[in-house]
Design brief:
Elements lengths: L8 E5 L3 H19 L8 E5 L1 H10 L4 H8 L40 H9 L6 H8 L8 H8 L12 E7 L5 E4 L9 H9 L8 E3 L2 E5 L18 E5 L13 H26 L3 E5 L3 H7 L9 H16 L2 H7 L7 H4 L16 H7 L12
Helix pairs in contact: 1-2, 1-3, 1-10, 2-7, 4-5, 6-7, 9-10
Length: 374
Amino acid sequence: MPPSRAPRVGLVLGAGGVMGGAWLTGGLEALATETGWDPASAERIVGTSAGSMIGALLASGIPPWFMVAHSAGRTFDGVAGADGRPADTASRSAGADFRYAGGLPPLGPGSWRLIFNSLRAPNRHRPTALLGGWLPRGFVSNEPLKDTIRRVVPSGWTDHPSFWAVACDYADGHRVAFGREDAPRADLADAVAASCAIPGFYEPVRIAGRRFVDGGLWSTSNLDILRGRDLDLVICLNPTSSLHPPYAWNPLERMAGAVRRASGRRLGSERKRLVAEGTAVVLIQPTSEDHAAMGPNLMSTRNRNPAIRTAIRTVREQLRAPEVVELLRDLPPGPDYKIREPDGPPSEWPDTLPGGRARVASSPEEPEPAAGTA
């Protein structure tokens, strides 16, 4: 990279359910405060499942410090979303408010077409695609997920020039990066809901006449989707792999450990593809302390804040490793108000922070000066 320019950086946020979203929130807070770099300034942001939710909020102007504070229950007087609703009425768990989608209970496989396509060409499909086809259609509403996004982007797409939400086509199992030029046009809320639509749990999301489900069906990280983008550095936070995969006797813990090891192998393979192109890659993954805080059930909503606090500490420790410090040393500093909470009341915050548009829209117009007084 020429010394005269800032590095071209990609940010990848992996899948991980509710607890993975909490870990990502704490991880981004640690990344911002430890380096002074604004993660939202990444040239490309890619999110899968929980990573698409956190990535969409980040790309749409919600800094990590605000996510941490909001999750912890803090309120900010006068702060409202882009849709005008008070911020303190938004979900504290990034849309993880589970309710039945309605209608008759789903029976039988969720996608016969996905099963058929996976069996017809197994070399072109992930084993998880076959499993995803056999699982019943999801029964949990994804409206709370959409509502969380609509509070910051009521319609259309985020203003970030290159945010991608990765989902999978429920008919053929192939991944689709919404926001990329070759993907169907979609509202950000629908794309994030599709990326989060775990087969057998959330109902699929219909976009452009097709049904889409969780992008983790293809890969929990989708790190390799940034190949060929001429990036100098990619920073990947992946909640479902692990620096310390647990080996436990508890069946649920053993299953979680197997998933983490498989995710880690996939992540390592994707990393090699980027490195082979000359792109430096920083991988940030949960530690054994994070596993203890998150627990084996990644869809639990009980321990979000302990998981966030633990991630802030463990990710900060990973970022202080000498080899990581060297890779991140050229990151440009971001605006201080994107890195940490500004001093003073929200009414004095910069307009680019949460609720800025709402504050500007609600402020009375200044009267025009009288003639001869300009």
